[in-house]
Amino acid sequence: MDRLIRKFRRHLLAWLHRSRSGSVSFVRQLSYKEIKRATDDFQRTIYSSSRGAAYRAKFQDGGVSLVKEVSAIDEEEEIFYREVQLLGRLHHRHLLALKGFSMGHKRLLVFDNIENGSLKDHLNDPLKTPLDWRTRLQIANGVVAALEYLFLFNEPPMYHVSISSSNIMLDENFTAKLSDVGLLNYSGNCIMAPHPSCSKDCMDQECGNIIFQLGVLILELVTGQSSEMEGSDLIQWIQESRFRNSIHKMIDPDLGNNYDSRELKNLLNVAKLCIKPRDKPAFSIPQLLRYLQTKVDIHTLQN
Fold this sequence. Notes:
Radius of gyration: 19 Å
Helix content: 40-55%
Number of strands: 12
Largest sheet: 6 strands, mixed
Distance between the termini: 29 Å
GO molecular function: ATP binding; protein kinase activity
Structural class: alpha+beta
Protein name: Kinase family protein
Strand content: 15-25%
Keywords: ATP-binding, Kinase, Nucleotide-binding, Transferase
Order of helices and strands: HEHEEEHEEHHEEEEEEHHHHH
Domain Protein kinase: 40-303
Number of helices: 10
């Protein structure tokens, strides 16, 4: 099956290259002053990662955007422009769309549409409207669908992806949007995929990290508990051989009894499979998506 997927991917990528060669979404260059004003002098921090901080921004058009400071890119402008070009080509309903950038005092990327803030806000803030079970399933499905798109339907296929409730944004319809995405390797003046001689090891390690993060995220969606410090308490719980006996104690009280028990158990099985040694993942991203669609009725939840 995986061989068939790889063959299909080659043909699809060739078709995409022919059909959209040279096409990039319009990405506007914004002034540093404009972004500084929209972020209230960079005071509205949403999260920080190895690639830099992210800020909430409100521009004059009234839209709520996410501004990312890119700190992991080399000093050469050509590399940053290449990053902008490649991010501008990403098109998926579960990825934040790049709409602008700035080359001022900081290198900044501007993404649309975070009307409802981060997933973490809605899980941890008692003043926010609780997320129902259907929405949580949609978020899990959306994150995995975005990963499949990034790994299978892009060239180069390897992207740096960080998954946490802090950097998953929600639009006005509570559709999940991955926000911490970038190219994995930087070499010279070009952004490149891993060298062929080590691509298998790099793929295993990066996929292992991403799948592990996804498992922690699922636990957070189910329990409503924080995943700070990689969710050590949640991980210890899911790894226990008799964790099923304590499921009722771990479910987010905001859910009440408004969830499907079969879907809950299957989703926790996915989390348990994800929380494995990171260097050798037990399954691929496409396999994980197929399992979710088979065991959890989230394929019927699309708007």
